[in-house]
Design goal:
By secondary structure, this protein is an alpha+beta fold. The protein has two domains: about 280 residues, Beta-galactosidase, Chain A, domain 5, CATH 2.70.98.10; about 425 residues, GH92 mannosidase fold. About 25% of the residues lie in helices and about 20% in strands. The chain is globular, with a radius of gyration of 27 Å. It starts with a helix and ends in an 11-residue tail after the last strand.
Length: about 775
Amino acid sequence: MKISKHLALCFLILLFSFQLTAQKTTDYVNPFIGTHHMGHTYPGATLPFGMVQLSPETDTILYSYGKGYNPKTYEYCAGYQYADNTIVGFTHTHFSGTGHSDLGDFLIMPTTGALKLNPGTSEKPETGYRSRFSHERESASPGYYSVILDDYNIKAELTATTRCGIHQYSFPSDSDARIILDMNYGIYNYDGKTIWSFVRVENDTLITGYRQTRGWARTRYIYFAMSLSAPIKNYGHKNDEKKVYNGFYRKFDEFHNFPEMAGKDVRAYFEFGNIPGNKLVVRMALSAVSTEGALKNLMAEASGKTFEQIRHEAESAWENELSKIRIKASPEVMKNFYTSLYHAYLSPTIYQDVDGKYRGIDQNIHEAQNFTNYTTFSLWDTYRALHPLFTIFQQQRTADMVNSMLAHYQQSVHKILPIWSHHANENWCMTGYHSVPVIADAMMKNIQGFDYTEGLKACVSSANYDVYDGIGDYKKYGYLPYDLSGNAASKTLEYAYDDWCIAQMAKKLNKQNFVSEYEKRAASYKKIFDPAVGFMRAKHSDGSWKPEFNPMATENQGFIEGNSWNYSLHVPHDVEGLKALLGGAKKMEMYLDSLFIMELPDHEIHSEDINKVGIIGNYVHGNEPSHHVPYLYNDAGVPWKTQKWVRKIMNTMYRPEPGGLCGNDDCGQMSAWYIFSAMGFYPVCPGSNEYSIGSPMIDDLSITLENGKTFRLIAKNNTTENCYIQKLSLNGKELKEPRLRHEDIMNGGILEFEMGSKPIRNYFVKP
């Protein structure tokens, strides 16, 4: 029987679609990637962008033992260390991959036997309520986590809704059941971090409460409502704080079966006897507003559902999000890609109750109008690739995130946008005003659902808050002087790029008075380039260069988390201007070659965030400032070198195993770099609507866009050896430059690569 070419093509497309959909995308996710030290991710249960991140805690490391900062704390940014062999309990809030931390709220630990109300130590877990565990009896998948607690022979299972953490504990049949509720435990904890906690036993199956903490977020409130599947038989608590005055509560025995518990160091216990069926289900709903809000969240999301029903819904929520991007690739690339996408969807996090109420930056209660409020904005990291990724994959959420930033601005007493914000607090971490490129990028890409004029107003206000981090001096001198502000050189470079973004917004809105002002500010990077040495470097207010310049060093050079070799390339908005400063395309190529092949000495690595695993030569992929750098070879006229290096980075610095990331994921930025690069392009300059072409790791990709269209990418002859582009076409038309426009993606169509093992050195190169 003869088959027409058209029918044959349709058959192949259907076959291909079946191959992609036959297995769940969640099957390719490895939540343990990056779960020790540099990765700082957690392997627990959450939903995409969920308010709850329910995960095990493996130790009780304090931020300080009274003699300054304890460096060991850094390893526990996410609460979980893969190398540990004990679990202290399970808490409901976490950050993914950050270099600093907070949270770890409302620790629950199931126990049997003698009552112990201290966590014990990892060396002697039997002295407390913690338990040993092994990875052989531990598993995790999107929306689900389970482990056997060896000391109690209890199977712990976790799943989640957006605002609720659901625990299921299977106890031995011959043991009475108990749970510990530790209200004092926290990540980056120290004596005095918990300002106050309160627990109220409403009835024998419902408990409510809250705690207030200080830390990275200085004034933080979080409330809970906890429903139990079995009635409480007996309960109590201890409070280890030293109290001077207790009022007339002395009338009661507060510590045994008294329904109110309050203090700064409360550890409660709830005993159930022998439970029929031996399973206890704990539903814990969170709210930043009130216990009433937590109860509403509990009723709306978890009431009347079994653990298995909620687990299935959680898995389906992940499958729904991940399956919008279908790929065909090698097994390792499949795992890396979908795990990276999973990481990218862990934050920012939803921060409002089901009725729309949330706690604002002014500590008042607000109600979100026509948007969903988000928090956890690690903007120094995520403006580079994570938020640009959302402009393709998550357009509605992008609008919601921008509206959340604008609400922050409106509520802020400083009248500025978020710098690094979480849980109704600005923690002021890192440099720049990088809400600006997120809003500018969304505006330039025509993301709908927020007020463009208000966006520009908020960005201008943020760029002119003179008391913040040297902005006043930056405006006065046209650069930020080193003698007036630390990390002045990197701040100048970051401010210049942010200012360029404001100029683009002003052009779009035809605000010409802002265009000239911010274009001038965007050129301030030129004032810290020293042609005598060929690098950006710190300059004093009198115009003299900071002495003792060392382009390899990170410390005391005017840069944050990077050296001059890497930061001197941080001019994403004016690569042509940078190229001219360096002496032209050939000199830029030589600069980039040197960066990748020279050796960064161990003694020049001064940051907790960086180690040799994340470094190639002197190029530091383990931290964000250099993420755009491999793509600059395109601008130097040697695109094949971009293709070579991005492939090497993907092949060596992303592995589908514990510790598989070469640095902190930083709320998804490290993962977003991989997602873009695996697709074959990258946003070197968010706000420009332009992507720089690299070398795809994926053989075939299909994106279901929110506008109903489909964008497809095909890489023919794509193998490990075939990393070089032989031909690139969009909808059948060959591209003449290594560039792709955002509109090309959103219009749908097919981007087709033909790959080979040898570079075509003059491909994309202008004659």
